[in-house]
């Protein structure tokens, strides 16, 4: 590591807010993203492929703007195609460890579904299988109008929590509205909120009280 880079890293530790400004979404960027979201909602596409590609392009733009993640598109495995694969870039890795308290994973899979209806457990189950096979701990399931579930423990939402409890894999579900009005926010903010919400909902240690006979074992 060169001396200049080392100095920058040390400066980031002492002045985190200065470096955080480098990856905050600006008003202009937020407006551009909002406009792309509006086009997806209008749904004026000639083919289903065009429809799917539009959502992938939006997410690609959101994640590429600040060079937090390197984005790879449409990677093929022996049995599946991964819409987007994210890997922390050098800048993102440094900011993640030094400023953002390691809230992001080094590698993340993204599944994009641009459908009108809310998506059911079949889609979540398939994505969970892909995470397991690829040995990836965190995946983002991004859809136009969200997933099914009247509460956090029913249908698709419930399956996500059961997967987190059983496998330790986190599926963070986003819908288009989650990416509106990003001005002043960071990618870390968006992901941290979803991750903390899921981890809090599946935390069960606080609900387990010691049994009076434990000392006999």
What keyword list fits this structure?
217 residues, alpha/beta, Trna Endonuclease, Chain: A, domain 1, DNA binding, Restrct_endonuc_IV_Mrr, Restriction endonuclease type IV Mrr domain-containing protein, endonuclease activity
What this model shows, in words?
The structure is a single chain. This protein has helices at residues 3-14, 16-20, 27-42, 48-64, 90-98, 121-134, 155-167, 187-201; strands at residues 69-76, 81-88, 107-113, 138-143, 170-175. It is α/β, with parallel strands linked by helices and 217 residues long. The chain has a single domain, classed as Trna Endonuclease, Chain: A, domain 1, CATH 3.40.1350.10. A hairpin with a 4-residue loop joins strand 1 and strand 2 (81-88). It is globular, with a radius of gyration of 19 Å. The mean pLDDT is 86. One of its GO terms (molecular function) is endonuclease activity. This is Restriction endonuclease type IV Mrr domain-containing protein. It comes from Enterococcus plantarum. InterPro entries: Restrct_endonuc_IV_Mrr.
N-to-C SSE string, H for helix and E for strand: HHHHEEHEHEHEH
In CATH, the topology is named Trna Endonuclease, Chain: A, domain 1
Q: What is the helix content?
A: 40-55%
Shape: globular
Oligomer: single chain
Task: Give start-end ranges of low-pLDDT stretches.
Answer: none
Q: Identify the strand order in the major beta sheet.
A: 1-2-3-4-5
Question: What is the residue-mean pLDDT, rounded to a whole number?
Answer: 86
InterPro entries: Restrct_endonuc_IV_Mrr
Organism: Enterococcus plantarum
GO molecular function, one term: endonuclease activity
Protein name: Restriction endonuclease type IV Mrr domain-containing protein
């Amino acid at each position: 590591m060169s001396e200049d880079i080392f100095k920058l890293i040390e400066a980031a530790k002492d002045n985190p807010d200065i470096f955080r400004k480098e990856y905050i979404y600006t008003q202009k960027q937020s407006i551009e993203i909002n406009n792309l979201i509006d086009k997806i909602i209008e749904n004026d596409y000639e083919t289903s492929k065009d429809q799917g590609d539009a959502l992938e392009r939006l997410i690609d733009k959101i994640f590429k703007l600040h060079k937090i993640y390197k984005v790879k598109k449409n990677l093929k495995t022996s049995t599946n195609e991964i819409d987007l694969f994210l890997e922390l870039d050098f800048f993102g890795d440094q900011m993640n460890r030094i400023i953002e308290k390691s809230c992001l994973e080094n590698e993340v899979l993204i599944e994009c579904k641009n459908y009108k209806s809310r998506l059911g457990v079949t889609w979540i189950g398939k994505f969970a299988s892909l995470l397991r096979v690829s040995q990836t701990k965190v995946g983002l399931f991004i859809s136009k109008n969200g997933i099914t579930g009247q509460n956090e423990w029913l249908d698709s939402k419930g399956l996500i929590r059961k997967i987190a409890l059983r496998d330790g894999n986190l599926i963070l579900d986003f819908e288009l509205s989650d990416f509106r009005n990003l001005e002043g926010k960071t990618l870390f903010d968006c992901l941290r909120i979803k991750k903390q919400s899921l981890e809090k909902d599946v935390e069960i240690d606080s609900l387990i009280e010691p049994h009076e006979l434990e000392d006999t074992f």
